[in-house]
Design brief:
The chain is globular. The two termini are about 35 Å apart. The chain has one domain: 3-Layer(aba) Sandwich (Rossmann fold), CATH 3.40.50. β1, α4 and β2 form a beta-alpha-beta unit. It has a six-stranded mixed β-sheet. Helices cover about 40% and strands about 10% of the residues. The chain is an alpha/beta fold.
């Protein structure tokens, strides 16, 4: 039996739930990333999955996890609008790292969506939010249900945007435990890890992309703008996968 279960957590009132998470996060704050992953594998509910966008620095989380859990299901949400370089990068890493890749897609194809709704990403904030919901959030919810996930691990970091600055190492999202083992890592730490293990950035990194998503809502970084402004035309930052507010 797992030491920490969702049933136990859900049996607590809101105040006790917050106290429960705060207590664990205080403990995890003092752990190395490897220790956080080990702790999750030992104490958090099964099934455990890792989600990855296969973005600029995604190789770090992938490499960290497979060193301790080689066959962990790696969930990719394929919107059908990723960069060609991203699809090739996925193939390359899947072969090199022997990933147990699980691909989930929207119910309706890109062509069907555009026929029905038009180009949602050109329809302001509300259009972008709906686009993200049907192309990213819904497929992720389906993945969590189909794989019977109890613990979801992701590689997002606080330094990536203002909206992520208060993210905890361990939280509850979509009714599962969610662990962010490198949430407090800096860009420098990420770079040092990639260099240490001779890993590779996404190929578009060298072309000036610092954050990658779909081809029509991702721009290169330029002087005077932040990393988060390179996504969704600077209108929003989050797609809803990791921060639903």
């Amino acid at each position: 039996m797992n030491k920490y279960s969702l049933n136990y957590f859900n049996s607590l009132n809101i105040e006790k739930q917050c106290s429960f998470l705060n207590k664990i996060n205080l403990k995890l704050n003092n752990f190395t990333v490897e220790q956080r992953i080990n702790w999750a594998l030992e104490y958090l509910p099964k099934e455990i999955v890792l989600s990855s966008s296969f973005g600029v620095q995604s190789v770090v989380s992938l490499h960290l996890m497979i060193r301790q859990f080689p066959n962990i299901p790696v969930v990719l949400i394929d919107t059908g609008y990723l960069f060609p370089e991203t699809y090739r990068f996925i193939d390359q890493l899947t072969e090199q790292l022997k990933l147990n890749l699980r691909v989930f897609r929207p119910v309706k194809s890109p062509a069907w969506q555009e026929a029905r709704y038009g180009k949602l990403w050109k329809q302001g904030v509300q259009g972008i939010k709906y686009y993200n919901y049907i192309n990213k959030v819904e497929p992720m919810l389906h993945a969590l249900k189909k794989l019977r996930v109890g613990t979801w691990i992701a590689g997002v970091r606080r330094q990536q945007s203002h909206s992520r600055k208060k993210l905890m190492i361990l939280s509850i999202q979509h009714h599962v435990f969610k662990l962010l083992p490198i949430v407090d890592w800096t860009n420098q730490q990420v770079h040092q890890y990639i260099k240490k293990y001779m890993l590779m950035y996404h190929p578009l990194w060298e072309q000036g992309y610092v954050s990658l998503g779909d081809i029509h809502t991702t721009n290169k970084w330029d002087f005077g703008i932040s990393e988060e402004e390179t996504r969704f035309f600077g209108l929003i930052r989050e797609c809803g996968l990791h921060y639903s507010k």
